[in-house]
């Protein structure tokens, strides 16, 4: 037996001994490998859909993007895009893109109106008549058009079409251990609570719905949520 064969035999015996000592039978090990294979396959299909859909949509939406960019600049001169640091899967930070819907000093003015927060739970800030939003911005937020640049985030892999909405670092700092379950998957543009009432749903219930998605996620569920997103956007339920 040469050195390579000896090394292979030793590794084989070590592996068998390690699994026997851990109490895992070969049958259970096979089931575990099969399960990991199913999960990996699901993620591959999900990622493939994300890439293809984001590319196709970005191309088709070029005329709409041009119109929205012109309207934003006319309503509030300045950058038409707004970038913000968000928390992704497992706490990884990334830059999320949106069409700008607020005046340039919006972040500084937040301290002045924070006491008027209308979102139950205290973690998120939402206000129906937020004075920091300019007229065109109010329209694109209500129609969810401001979220469309996130297709670029989907293409890059920072986000997915479907998944829990990405949170701000300041919000994650207030998360309980249960809330942090939202960080176990790649964040998305739409999710269960986005099609079920959006900002009308209190934060604790949003977490419950996100955890429900994580525990039952599948390609078919993603397709159903994407289809439900269309009427939710058209009816503007809970959008402000």
Automatic annotation (TrEMBL):
Signal peptide: none
Transmembrane segments: 51-73
Molecular function as annotated in GO: phosphotransferase activity, for other substituted phosphate groups
Cross-referenced InterPro entries: Bact_transf
Domain Bacterial sugar transferase, residue spans: 46-234
UniProt keyword terms in alphabetical order: Membrane, Transferase, Transmembrane, Transmembrane helix
Protein family (similarity comment): Belongs to the bacterial sugar transferase family.
Protein name (Swiss-Prot/TrEMBL): Glycosyl transferase
Organism, as annotated: Methylovulum psychrotolerans
């Amino acid at each position: 037996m040469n050195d390579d064969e000896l090394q292979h035999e030793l590794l084989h015996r070590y592996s068998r001994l390690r699994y026997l000592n851990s109490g895992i039978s070969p049958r259970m090990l096979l089931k575990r490998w099969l399960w990991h294979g199913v999960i990996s396959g699901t993620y591959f299909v999900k990622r493939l859909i994300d890439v293809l859909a984001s590319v196709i949509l970005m191309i088709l939406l070029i005329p709409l993007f041009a119109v929205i960019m012109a309207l934003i600049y006319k309503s509030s001169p300045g950058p038409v895009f707004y970038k913000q640091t968000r928390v992704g899967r497992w706490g990884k930070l990334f830059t999320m893109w949106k069409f700008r819907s607020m005046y340039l000093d919006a972040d500084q003015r937040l301290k002045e109106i924070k006491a008027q927060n209308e979102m139950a739970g205290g973690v998120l800030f939402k206000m129906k008549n937020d004075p920091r939003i300019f007229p065109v911005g109010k329209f694109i937020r209500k129609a969810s058009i401001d979220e469309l640049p996130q297709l670029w985030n989907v293409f890059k892999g920072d986000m997915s079409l479907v998944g829990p909405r990405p949170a701000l670092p300041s919000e994650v700092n207030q998360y309980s251990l249960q809330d942090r379950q939202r960080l176990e998957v790649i964040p998305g543009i739409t999710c269960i609570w986005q099609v079920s009432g959006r900002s009308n749903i209190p934060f604790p219930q949003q977490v419950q719905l996100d955890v429900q998605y994580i525990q039952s996620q599948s390609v078919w569920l993603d397709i159903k949520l994407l289809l439900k997103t269309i009427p939710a956007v058209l009816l503007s339920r809970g959008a402000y």
